[in-house]
Specification:
single chain, about 300 residues, mainly alpha, two-stranded antiparallel sheet, 15 helices, 2 strands
């Protein structure tokens, strides 16, 4: 698929895709099932766990690995990252990374896919995801991954992973209800909390980087775009909120450039590197830190 660079000036990006809208609405409305399934501390814990593990798959996998190749890993772990990322309901790794690479090429211009200053907060946050213009991946931007048939398969059948996860949460809840009744949970309850609620939270946590991280926060570096550093967004996205840092040096695996900039994804990747699962983690060069010192 080749992106039509004149589409943004015609307003075609505002044409919504009915299938996308329907699926997005169903996932959100399903959260109201909590009225009937109730809650338990176990279900809330599973919700939090599923949010965190999938946020890591998005930030550490889809973003820092597939989009920016900021570290290296094995083909097996590459697939695991791709599969876990797919369970988030944010399509496949080729779709995600190709559009993100396009974003970096045209950040906060009319050719960008989600510039809040130009198209507004709602469109930058979620409208572009539901747009008919961005249904397919831009394969010409991810040629480095096209020679992996398993990644192409994962991207083509990206709806399979969230369905599998939904089934697993329901099954796990049913097993817990039978063998561990003291947990006060059920298949229905774990499906609602572990899949639907955690997925909606994950949606808006991830999307906040495209919208709020280009509107609220401080700019340490003059990057020529609206990217900003935001502590709160860094917490809820495991480190992605250091967005101005990232736009200054996208190739860095570490986005919290200083020790006080909390970057949980970096800590996890560093731990994985100690186990030999990932390696060659890239860091900002000294010239970037020198630039930061001069900007004070």
């Amino acid at each position: 698929m080749h992106y039509d660079h004149t589409a943004s000036t015609r307003g075609d990006h505002h044409v919504m895709n009915g299938i996308k809208q329907g699926a997005f609405l169903i996932v959100h409305l399903s959260c109201f099932l909590v009225i009937w399934c109730g809650w338990s501390w176990f279900a809330i814990g599973v919700c939090l766990f599923m949010y965190l593990i999938r946020m890591f798959a998005i930030t550490g996998g889809y973003h820092r690995y597939f989009s920016h190749r900021s570290y290296k890993t094995s083909r097996t772990f590459q697939f695991i990252l791709g599969f876990l990322g797919s369970t988030s309901g944010q399509k496949g790794p080729l779709w995600w990374s190709s559009h993100h690479r396009h974003h970096h090429q045209h950040s906060d211009t009319e050719l960008d896919i989600h510039p809040p200053r130009i198209y507004g907060l709602w469109y930058a946050h979620v409208g572009w995801v539901l747009s008919s213009q961005f249904v397919k991946p831009r394969l010409e931007l991810v040629k480095d991954f096209l020679h992996y048939p398993e990644i192409r398969w994962l991207d083509k059948f990206h709806t399979l992973a969230p369905v599998v996860l939904a089934a697993l949460t329901y099954g796990a809840g049913s097993i817990c209800s039978h063998f561990f009744p003291s947990l006060n949970t059920s298949g229905f309850q774990l499906l609602v909390w572990g899949f639907f609620i955690s997925t909606v939270l994950l949606y808006h946590g991830t999307f906040s980087i495209n919208s709020l991280s280009h509107m609220i926060g401080n700019q340490r570096f003059k990057t020529g775009d609206d990217s900003r550093n935001n502590f709160f967004l860094a917490i809820i996205t495991l480190g992605e909120g250091w967005h101005n840092n990232h736009h200054r040096y996208p190739g860095s695996e570490k986005q919290g450039f200083y020790w006080w900039e909390i970057d949980v994804t970096h800590y996890l990747l560093r731990a994985l590197s100690w186990c030999g699962i990932v390696w060659d983690l890239r860091v900002p060069p000294e010239r970037v830190y020198q630039e930061a010192r001069m900007s004070k």
